[in-house]
Amino acid sequence: MNKLSEIFKNKALVGFLTAGDPDMDSCKDFIMQMVRAGADVIEIGIPFSDPIAEDEIVQTSAFRALKAGTTVEGVFELVKSLRENTNVPVIFSTYLNPVFNYGYEFFFKKCSELGVCGVIIPDLPYEEKSEIQEFSDKYKVDIIPVLAAKSSGRMSKIALGARGFIHLMSSLNPSSPKKDDIQKLKKTAEEIKNITKTPCATVFGEPSFNDIKIANEISQGVVIGSAIVKIIAEHGKNASEKIYDYVKSIKNAF
Fold first, then answer.
1. Long-range contacts of residues 185-188, Cβ cutoff 8 Å, at least 24 apart
2. Is 145 within 8 Å of 159 (Cβ atoms)?
3. Which residues contact 166 (CB under 8 A, 6 or more apart)?
4. Which helix (DSSP H) or strand (DSSP E) does residue 18 occupy?
5. Rounded CA gap, 63 and 191, in Å?
6. CA 210, CA 170: separation in Å to the nearest integer?
7. Among residues 59, 77, 51, which one has the least CA distance to residue 21?
8. pLDDT in tens, 56-97
C-alpha cells in the first residue's frame, strides 16, 4: 500500500490552493495553517494559462499566480521549503503542457525527491496515459484519476488502473434537484468500490456540512476545491487566520 492509500485508510481531508497566489511566501504560510488545522493532504495547483477543468474561482487564481511570475520550478522550491517544517503528503494538480515543457522524467524525479506523492492531470486522456506512466512507475509518483458522477463506460478502465486515490467530482448541478445529483454521486461511488480497492475522495468546491456528511458516507475523504482559493481572493496575504478557521471547521465536521 502506498503513502496516499495509507492516509485514506482513515477519513482524509485534502485542502487545495494555487501556488503563487498571491505569492509563494504567503502560500507556504497558508499551507502550514491548513496542516495545523488538520488537513491530511495538501493539493497544490501548478498554474496554467488555459485551466479548462477549473471553475471560475480557481481559473482566476491561476491567472493571478502566473501574473505574479509563478513557474513550475518555483512550485518545486515552495515544496522544498515546506519540507523544512512538515512531512504532510503533497500532491500536484496541473495540466499536461507544464509537465511536458519541464520534461516528464525531470518532473517526476523532482516530485519523488521532494515527497510529492501524486499528480492530477485532468487534460491527460486515459488512452494517452502510457506517455508518462513509465516515469510515474519509475519514481513512484501516482497519477491520480478524476471521475465524475456522469462518467461514461470508461470509468471501469480508469478506476482499475487508479493508484493513490480517486478524485470523485461531486458535479452538483444548481439547475437540477440536488437529491438527484446526490443519488448519481452515491451510485458512482458504489460502482467505484465494486471495481477497485483504491480509495476515493469526494471533491466539493465549497462543501456544506451536509456535503461532508454525504462524502463520509460514500467515500474515504473530502477534497476542498475552490473554498480556500476564494478566501485567498478575498483576503490576500492576510488570509492565514481565515484559512485556519475554515479548514478547522471542516475537519471538525468529519
1. 185/149, 185/214, 185/218, 186/214, 186/217, 186/218, 187/149, 188/147, 188/148, 188/149, 188/151, 188/155
2. yes
3. 144, 145, 146, 147, 159, 192, 196, 198, 199, 200, 201
4. strand 12-18
5. 36
6. 13
7. 59
8. 999 999 999 999 999 999 999 999 999 999 999 999 999 999
- Alpha helices by DSSP H, listed for the chain, are 3-7, 24-37, 56-67, 72-82, 96-102, 104-113, 130-139, 155-160, 178-195, 209-218, 226-235, 240-252
55 has pLDDT over 90: no
112-162 confidence digits (pLDDT tens): 999 999 999 999 888 888 889 999 999 999 999 998 876 656 788 888 888
Q: What is the mean pLDDT of the chain?
A: 90
Nearest C-alpha neighbor of 212 from the set 242, 171, 250, 241: 250
Which residues, 6+ apart, have CB-to-CB distance to 72 below 8 Å?
46, 98, 101, 102, 107
Backbone angles phi, psi at 159, to 5 degrees: -65, -40
- Going across the sheet that includes 146-148, the strands are 142-143, 116-120, 90-93, 41-45, 12-18, 221-224, 200-204, 166-169, 146-148
| Amino acid identity, position 171 | S
Output the CA–CA distances (angstroms, integers) from residue 150 to 153, 164, 185, in the order listed: 10, 22, 8
Question: Which pairing describes strands 90-93 and 142-143: parallel, antiparallel, or unpaired?
Answer: unpaired
Task: Phi first, then psi: give them for residue 147, nearest 5 degrees.
Answer: -125, 155
- Grid cell, residue 66, equals 502566473
Three-state DSSP at 136 gives helix
Separation CA 44–CA 66 (nearest Å) = 14
Which of 44, 40, 48 is closest to 19 using CA atoms? 44
